[in-house]
Design brief:
four-stranded mixed beta sheet, UDP-n-acetylglucosamine1-carboxyvinyl-transferase, Chain
Length: 357
């Protein structure tokens, strides 16, 4: 059983998600202690518990320590089973973070995995569902990943109630990815949304984002506006946000997002997202800082040499690298410092579903 200190690196929930995801893929049992030790409320929160339960169902795992605020967990997985699964977080806990834990294992199941998750689709401290659909998944498909995610209903903090459905079909193995530069930006797209709020909020966010990008020299910008008739709006509570993504001629996709909150002008939300996008585009790198974190486990599992440049190396990324190296026995090469653009390279395992480490 591999012992993992949950206080390593940034000491947050990403350690738990990555460790369990790789445990499920490799069938290597893990013992995680000091879970979320560096967070204000250490231990398992509801969304973490439901993520563990979902992975447990997917793999028929034996689990010890699965209780609210537990700081220690033992996870002994079996083979990954296809099928239909449902997860109700019960709060506005992040749907996309639970999917981050499920997606690597589901790719190596013995059949298609269909999962429906209820919770928060657009909440702070996690990728919004539009980023997952329009940045993460298209990039993973370049590696041979086979899956779709459908946003059925949005859920914002504090009410939650968002519904997201995912279908992931198994693959024999993943291919290496090489994204060294963005190249010329061929277009910028986005989705500006508001629910249980006047439509002009989504319209103002879209307009302000387009203006900020136009001033920076980007004229080819297409932002979809998503709003609802208040009398027919199916969402549980109000919320707003914008997700932007730029497509480079190299095939790279760079994304950024921002969420609204009470008292925060729509224009400020839009300018925040545009500023982050422009900063990352300015580096010319092949990956944004958020996708870098998410891609590391897949790079290690893929066949061949993967190499990417990241608009910003984060503590999350370096912690993920250290964790993946420990569980999968691979070695990453990292050139760069935290907070700066960097390069990441790894010779992948060429992991295949019948193989067990």
């Amino acid at each position: 059983m591999i012992a993992i200190d949950g206080a390593m690196g940034e000491g947050g929930g990403a350690i738990l998600r990555t460790a369990l995801a790789l445990s499920a893929v490799s069938m290597r049992p893990v013992h995680i202690y000091n879970i979320r030790a560096k967070r204000p409320n250490p231990g398992l929160a509801p969304q973490h518990m439901h993520g563990v339960k979902a992975l447990g169902s997917l793999t028929g795992a034996k689990i010890e320590g699965l209780r609210l605020r537990s700081t220690e967990l033992r996870f002994e997985p079996g083979a990954v089973k296809g099928g239909r699964y449902r997860v109700d977080i019960g709060t506005a806990g992040s749907i996309t973070l639970i999917l981050q834990a499920l997606m690597p294992a589901a790719a190596f199941a013995d059949g298609p995995v269909e999962v429906e998750i209820t919770g928060g689709s657009d909440v702070p401290m996690s990728p919004p569902v539009d980023y997952l659909i329009n940045v993460t998944l298209p990039t993973l498909r370049k590696m041979g990943y086979d899956g779709e995610v459908i946003r059925v209903r949005r859920g914002h903090y504090p009410r939650g109630g968002g519904i997201v459905q995912a279908v992931i079909r198994p693959v024999r193995k993943l291919s290496a990815i090489r994204m060294i530069e963005l190249g010329r930006v061929v277009g910028i797209k986005g989705i500006s949304h508001c629910v249980k709020l006047p439509e002009h909020i989504a319209t103002r966010m879209a307009h302000a984002a387009k203006l900020a990008l136009l001033r920076a020299g980007y004229a080819d910008v297409d932002i979809e506006i998503e709003a609802y008739d208040p009398a027919k709006d199916p969402h549980l509570g109000p919320g707003a946000g914008i997700t932007l993504w730029a497509e480079g001629e190299s095939g790279s996709i760079i994304g950024a997002s921002a969420l609204g909150r009470p008292g925060k002008p729509a224009e400020e939300v839009a300018r925040e997202a545009a500023k982050v996008l422009l900063k990352q585009l300015g580096t010319g790198c092949g990956m944004d800082r958020y996708l870098t974190d998410q891609l590391i486990p897949y790079m290690a599992l893929a066949e061949g040499t993967s190499e990417i440049t990241s608009a910003e190396l984060t503590s999350h990324a370096l912690t993920n690298i250290a964790l993946v190296e420990r569980i999968l026995d691979v070695k990453f090469e990292v050139d760069g410092q935290i907070g700066q653009p960097g390069r990441i390279r790894v010779e992948g395992l060429g992991f295949t579903r019948p193989q067990r480490l």
